[in-house]
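Batch job 17 of 40 flagged for manual review because the log was empty.
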Amino acid sequence: MMNLTTAEENYLKAIYHLSEEGKKSVSTNDVAAEMNTKPASVSDMLRKLGEKEVIQYRKYYGVHITEEGKRRALQTIRKHRLWEVFLVEKLNFAWDEVHEVAEELEHIQSPLLIQRLDAFLNFPKFDPHGDPIPDEYGDVRSRPRIPLNEMEVDQSGQIVAVKDSSAAFLRYLDKVGAYIGARIKVLDKVEFDGSLEILVDQKKTLFMSKDVGSNILVLQS
């Protein structure tokens, strides 16, 4: 199996996420935006990934991830999310502190280490942000969930994930008391701007913007 560099794994992971968003073909500009770099610097990396047969790339025709590419991307994502669980559960990191550390740890090339880490953590299915952790075969356990702002008044559910995992957003959720696992009920939706009044755990009322609600994912009950 041909090894990928850290940079190549990061690009492949970005291409996988873009492909999962439903894009039939991922453009160079899409990749550049995801990686926060210039399109001109992306082309050389795409050529290298094409040579390693984890993507198919033709200039001006976009990028298609191969089955081998998906497998390798899911391995990296699996490691990243397992390390996030470890950092939060075992080292007492806050959920807004783990992403950058996990970005470094995800590139460790030791399948045995990851197998033992998974077992040590008792085979978690979701990371601290509610994202599913692929198993060692690349299978991902999904669950139906909708953005909070799409719920109707009097509907109830449980917060199971966040779309925005930036440190600033996670600190905001900590501040207002909205966390993964919280039971919520929509008390009101303002017609003018889509802002929400939410009851959390049957005891605390929160007011949040439509934008915040769109980044909170709920399993309806």
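Reviewer: the log was empty due to a logging misconfiguration, but the result itself is present. The helical segments are 6-20, 28-35, 39-51, 67-89, 99-105, 111-120, 167-176, 210-214. Unflagging and moving on to job 18.
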